[in-house]
Amino acid sequence: MDVRSGSAATREENPMVHHAVTRLDGATVLITGANRGLGAELARAARQRGADLVIGASRKAPADSGTEWVELNLDDDASIDHAARQAGAVDLLVNNAGLCVADWLTDGTLLHRHLRTNVEGPRRLTDLMLPGLRARGGAVVNVLSLASIYPIPGMASYSASKSAAMSWTQTLAIRERARVAVHAVYAGPMDTDMVRDLAIPKSPPGDVAAAVLDAVDDGVLDIFPDAMSASFADAWLQGPAVGLQRANAAMAEAR
After folding, report:
1. Integer Cα distance of 235 and 149 in angstroms
2. The overall pTM is greater than 0.85
């Protein structure tokens, strides 16, 4: 897969990592949770953009026959290891699968489940896929949430896990800056099974999928792919948190 340097504007926005534009033409793509919702739309959009092979990793097979399937349970190390071996080397890894159960952070078991599914499972899978990604000059896309930045009331364990996933994503970006582009997707609510019953504005997952892949193709690393999240983008990219992130990255560069 062709990888080239990002624009000057992108480098100024987030200069701490290796910047690349990932063209999907002829690529091999692995998407977790591709059996429904955003994952299914990402798989469909990747094929439309010329991906040679799109692999969906999930507990259930995708209904769309155009997506190859490997079984994946992010709660099980053996399942993660087996899925990584089946998938082989890929150009683009999209960590999309996740768990979201309502709570107020009163149940330690539920918190552990969220951390396992939303942080530890994707981390293990990504580490297993990194040798192939490095060899191909590929990219990782971690689907986070606005809840990574500020918790959603009544979804405390989910929010805590997404904050942890954001920290891991930023760490991965610094560690792999010269080898693999790492993209963070700060998504707002989408019209999927996860939040369909909530009485809040939601974006169509197909539109979000297109915006995510557009941003990856443009070399944008911090992605705000929908109307709600986009309203926070400037404040985030120009705010003190990203400033501290850059300073920490510079410190890592100096070592």
Report:
1. 12
2. yes
